[in-house]
């Protein structure tokens, strides 16, 4: 039995009509917003209420997963020693695991889901680096701006290549005995590259 398909998509600067066309093209029925803050200063068509209304107008559902799946985590326990959000720590939280279960429940009930963030390129977005890496029971497809898609496996090959081809970066893979170990290192490297760093705490006066 084949795995259920789940999509990811970045709203980018798309006109809302084109964004809805992208979703319809792939038969998406439910958009799972994974932005910590469901608003866009420069693209107000993707503010939470406006987006939900647009989706509803063509019969699509909207759910917000910002607390569990958002990149801007502020719990200090989820930060790395460098002060940035550690995606592996986020994936180990109960709220993240519960959100994954909700995706499975919604998919099992017949929804075709798309995880939505703002970034056009999934390679440099937490929806790939933090979330879809944990969607092992799904066939993950990342929708691109031109209406094509790349699979999770194809994007992981791109992830490895993005570090292997940079001067000095290949040193990071020394000692890695397998492709799986190299991939795990590449995920950690991209985590560090794109992660949110919360502002330092203000000390009491």
Brief account:
The chain is an alpha/beta fold and 205 residues long. 39% of the residues lie in helices and 13% in strands.
Topology:
Blueprint: E1 5-10, H1 16-25, E2 30-33, H2 48-57, E3 61-64, H3 66-69, H4 87-91, H5 94-108, E4 113-117, H6 126-131, E5 139-143, E6 149-151, H7 152-164, H8 179-194
Parallel strand pairs: 1-4, 1-5, 2-3, 2-4
Antiparallel strand pairs: 5-6
Helix pairs in contact: 7-8
User: For the CA atoms, what is the radius of gyration?
Assistant: 17 Å
End-to-end CA span: 61 Å
Estimate the strand proportion.
Answer: 5-15%
Report low-confidence residues grouped into runs of 5 or more.
Answer: none
What is the tally of helical segments?
A: 8
State the order of secondary-structure elements, H for helix, E for strand: EHEHEHHHEHEEHH
Count of beta strands: 6
Q: Which whole number gives the mean pLDDT? A: 93
Shape: globular
Structural class: alpha/beta
Q: Please outline the major beta sheet.
A: 6 strands, mixed
Strand numbers in spatial order across the main sheet: 3-2-4-1-5-6
